[in-house]
Specification:
Chain lengths: 114, 112
């Protein structure tokens, strides 16, 4: 398996622009997680899905952030409008819904908002 | 979920065992202990997990104290490639809903 795939790997945009990050989980996994990592705050969970349904989005910083999972093999994290403080590395991870579980992380998307 | 406490940094000589401690004094009976690591510029990588018993796999060993209030991750023969941030997490997944908290982890530097 190719593992969790994220695109783009790097994104540079200007403040106010819309940004869409994409994730393809490992085939057969039914949980998907979006994380954000910064030097100041470390690794934070933004939202996670079980069987394509959002379970907990309490980590989403504000209404400018939205995430969707239209099917089991694809998810997006959208920021509109983007702000410089959104600059971070965004990771997607997937796992099986089971106890205990193991999360497999993608390589991340490094976002820079100018 | 219970919180964990880890030293911010450690160092180890190449070829020696690296012992990374983690305190989780408020852990409850149905919470697992997980360890992940993150090598620079990569996504976190799962290492090992355990509930009560000690565990070993091809990457590491996990020693959990009898009262489960602390654990130690052991890399038996550390290499330069083991230089990374190591995260100890405790999570209750029995209810199906959880928010794993990675914290700051321990930055392990393996030197020649």
């Amino acid at each position: 398996d190719a593992g969790v795939i994220q695109s783009p790997r790097h994104e540079v945009t200007e403040m106010g622009q819309e940004v869409t990050l994409r994730c393809k989980p490992i085939s057969g996994h039914n949980s998907l997680f979006w994380y954000r990592q910064t030097m100041m705050r470390g690794l934070e969970l933004l939202i996670y899905f079980n069987n394509n349904v959002p379970i907990d989005d309490s980590g989403m910083p504000e209404d400018r952030f939205s995430a969707k999972m239209p099917n089991a093999s694809f998810s997006t994290l959208k920021i509109q409008p983007s702000e410089p403080r959104d600059s971070a590395v965004y990771f997607c991870a997937s796992s099986l819904v089971q106890v205990p579980d193991t999360q497999y992380f993608g390589p991340g998307t490094r976002l820079t908002v100018l | 979920d219970a919180k964990t406490t880890q030293p911010p940094s450690m160092d180890c000589a190449e070829g020696r065992a690296a012992n990374l401690p983690c305190n989780h004094s408020t852990i409850s009976g149905n919470e697992y202990v997980y360890w992940y690591r993150q090598i620079h510029s990569q996504g976190p990588q799962y290492i090992i997990h355990g509930l009560k018993n000690n565990e070993t796999n091809e990457m590491a060993s996990l020693i959990i104290t009898e009262d489960r209030k602390s654990s130690t991750l052991i890399l038996p023969h550390a290499t330069l490639r083991d230089t990374a941030v190591y995260y100890c997490i405790v999570r209750d997944t029995s209810g199906g809903s959880y928010i794993p908290t990675f914290g700051r982890g321990t930055s392990l530097i393996v030197h020649p």
